[in-house]
Amino acid sequence: MIIDTHCHLNDETLIPEAERIVSEMRENGIEALINVAFDFASSVKSLEFAKAHEGVYATVGIHPDSSFTDCVMENYEKMAEMATNEKVVAWGEIGLDYFRLDDPKTPVKAIQKGAFIEQIELASMCGLPISIHMRDSIEDTMTILKENSMMLNNGFVLHCYSGPKELVKEFADMGAYFSFGGAITFKNARRNIESLSEVPMDRLLLETDCPYMAPVPHRGETNEPKYISLVAEKAAEIKGIPVQEIIDATTRNARALFTRIK
Ligand SMILES: [Zn+2]
Predict the structure, then answer these.
(1) Which of 117, 119, 180, 227 is 20 to 30 A (C-alpha) from 24?
(2) For the CA atoms of 118, 120, 121, 123, what is the dihedral angle to 10 degrees?
(3) Is this prediction's pTM over 0.90?
């Protein structure tokens, strides 16, 4: 059975569907879901939802887009308290997103970097691995991870890794796991596919990032955890191995990184 290591059942689109999605998990071959938070409110909701549902796990964390409003001491203290709950399996998603830097609503680089480093420290204090969001920011992300490598002792995943393949080894040597989703099924996925072929089998994870990134033939629709089997099949094709081997390896890896998954 598969573990969806990165989904957003707290996204507005999926909130009305969340109960149904979870009730169908097992028949869709999914043994566990990590419902990843992206701001303070979704951290609270993610933990509440996880407590009420078997096989559903939570994270706490503030995405770079929300770092300007949500990264305040009061929230950090509450999140660190929430992180003591055994249903919280990681700190994230956190990181750097420079995609919309020209948008006045996007926090500037310095604010994003500060929030990223503060949360790396919190994750380490709480004994949690980190789920990292990296968009158009690979150099600064690499620099921050290197400068704070002592605080990465609980491991980290680069979610929705899209390359470049040349950096897979460098990240892997730092202890990285690499997660792949629907983007590997897209027509223009050359960079993602080349990267996935470079990722060692013991560092590979699967995700949906739903409601975004629905795999082909559902591209453009609302994504759901059930489509993760299409991601597993594509990953198997890229690695040239049976899909069951992909499923077994990625589930084993997810349990090795997110040690609180039962
Ligand atoms: Zn995400």
Answers:
(1) 180
(2) 120
(3) yes
